[in-house]
Every structure is written in structure tokens, then in C-alpha cells.
Amino acid sequence: MKNFKDDMNPKYTLIAIYVIATCMAIVVLVRLLDHINIVFNALNTVGKWAVLVMQPVVGGLIIAYLLDPLVDFFERQLNKVPAVRKKNKDMRPMAVAMTVVMAFLIVILLLSLVISTVTRQFTLASLTQMTDMMSQYGRTLNSFYSSLQKELTELNISTPGLKESLDALVVTLGDALKTQAGAIGKTISNIGSVFTSAVFIIIFAIYFMLDGKGLAKYWNNVLIALSNKRFNEGFHNLLKRADRIFSGYIRGQLIDALIMALLISISLSIIGVKFSVIIGVLTGIGNLIPYVGGIVAYGSTIIVCVINGDFTKLFISLVILFIVQTIDGNVINPKLLSSNIKIHPLLVIASLIVGSAVGGFFGMIFAVPVGALIKELFDELIAKISKRSNKLDE
Fold this sequence. Notes:
By secondary structure, this protein is mostly helical. The protein has a domain at 229-385. It has helices at 4-7, 10-34, 36-79, 82-87, 92-124, 127-154, 160-189, 191-226, 229-271, 276-286, 292-308, 311-337, 345-393. α3 (36-79) crosses α5 (92-124), α5 (92-124) crosses α10 (276-286) and α11 packs antiparallel against α12. The longest helix has 49 residues, at 345-393. It is extended.
């Protein structure tokens, strides 16, 4: 007796399966398009939850990556102790504990300096003085506007357009201040969730510092099991390059930011500029992003000195800032970054624009090393293509 399977034509059977699968895919796609809003809402919800869950993991991984050299340093120093060498004890937990304590002390010290400076500066200025100062600035602006109107009238230039522009500017400034106040209020109201996220980030960072090598070994075995030798070698080569560029750039920028914060804070404090520590800290944070630190330093110093009428201090401060920024740009920063980053200034600016659009402030911090890595891989690809073309020509 003939089997039904023997009468089947494999070619037409395969075509029929393709047709059925295509029809089912079209039906599913149509159904999805009919409920596209529900699908997008579901994806948005899943994405938010994924970001919420991954945020402390990624934050902890970044902190562990940045502090890992310090942990290794403490571990090496502890292993040099004769008693530890004899017992052959694992000093990794102790090294992690020492690193965490040092990091906390540095953060607490910086926060104490900023808070004490702000408190002292606002204590020195009474409420009456601040009110008088604001009234004086208001009178100055009114006087300027009246003088401008008078000059324009004498020149037979109508001022309604100017008045409308100024009114629009006032409304814009008011809206901006309202938005900033709302953002500050929202941040204060979410202080509990921010604290919770910070705690989880610290926990993950400690875990990664303790068992980072074990995790790396595990995922390396997974990669070997799921991929071929060529892919594995290429992936490890990419990781080594990324580690060289990112570690050299990020750690170098952090040290440079700390140095600049100290130099500017001390320099402006000696001159007697108000809020010198805050200006120094903000400049240090801005120095994490190329070209931003200088803008923050000059801009904040000019604003503080002009508001307080310290024009002599302003001139001296600008000279000091120019000297410090020049030393940083030509000596300190190149020494810290060494040869890890080789990227054209235009590519730096393009990377910052893209990084800002994608990830905001943190996107701008990581934009330059990402751009440097992409440039290095692109240069290598072009070199391989050129080498292959030269061989073909020969």
C-alpha cells in the first residue's frame, strides 16, 4: 500500500509551507497595525521597566570599571604584606572595602566643601542686602530701557516692536524659570527613588568589583561555546581596544577634572571671588566634556563678579583662568590622556553633538571615546581595503 508521504512532491510541499507562513505573517502584521497604539504602549512600558531595572546595573558596572585600577592597586599592596603572603588569603574583599571607603570620603569632602561655601556666602549676605541688590538691578534695567527708548525716539525709530520683543523675552525668561523650578521640585519629590537607585548602584558596583573577573570568565566561556574562533578573537580584540581607549580617556578626564576643580577653587579663593569652590567644582564637572570646562569657568566667574560689582577681581580672575586653562590644555590633559585618544577636533565636536542628542550629559562624556574607537576601526578597515587593492593591482 502506498504511503501518503510517498505521493508528496518535496518541491511543491516546500512552496506550500512558504505560502502558508507568508500568509500567517501578513495576518499577524495586519492585526498588529490595527492595534498599533496598544503595541507601542506595551513596548514603551516594557522599555521603561527595562531602563528602570538596568539603570543600577549599568551604573554599578561603570563605577566598578572606573575604580577597578584602585582595587587592583590595594590588592597588590596588601599581598606584599608577609603575613598575608604566608596565609595565602584572598585580599580582594579588603581591597574593595578600602576603595569604597576612599571613594565615600572623597565624595563627602567635596559635598562638604560645596555646602559649607554656599551656606557661608548666603549667611554673609542678609535678606535686606539681597533685596536692595535686586532693587538696584531693577532700577538699572529700567534706566537702561528708558535711555534706549529716548535715543530711538530722537532717531525717529519707533519702539513698539522693541517693546514687544522685550515683553516676549520677559515671558520666555519667566517660562524658563518656571520650568527649572518645576524640575527642581520634581527632583526633590523624587529624592526617595534617587536614593534607592544610588543604593542599588553602589551594591552592584561592589559586587562587580568583588567578582568581576569571575563574571568575565563565565561570559567568555559562553562566548566560546556559542561562536567560532574567528569571531571570538575579533570580539576580544575589540574589547581590548575599547578598554584601552575608554580607560585612558575616562580615568584621565576624571583626574583632570579633580585637578582643575582644586586649582580653580584655590586660585579664585585667594583672589577673593565669591562662590569660588562652587565655580571650581562646576568647572571640574564641565571639564569631563571637551571645551565645556573653560566655558563654565569663564561664564560663572564673569556672572558672579559682575553681580557683585567686583570688576578688579574679574580682570585678575580672567587672567588666572587663562593661565590655568592654558597649562591644562597643553600640559596636564595631554599627559593624562597620553596616546589613548587620537581624534580630530571636528570629530570631537560631531561626537559631542551626537552624544548629547542620544544620552544627554552622560552621552557627551562617553561620546569622544566612542568616536575615537569608531575612527580607529574605520581607519583599520580602510587600511585593509587599500592593502587588498594594492595586492590585486600587483
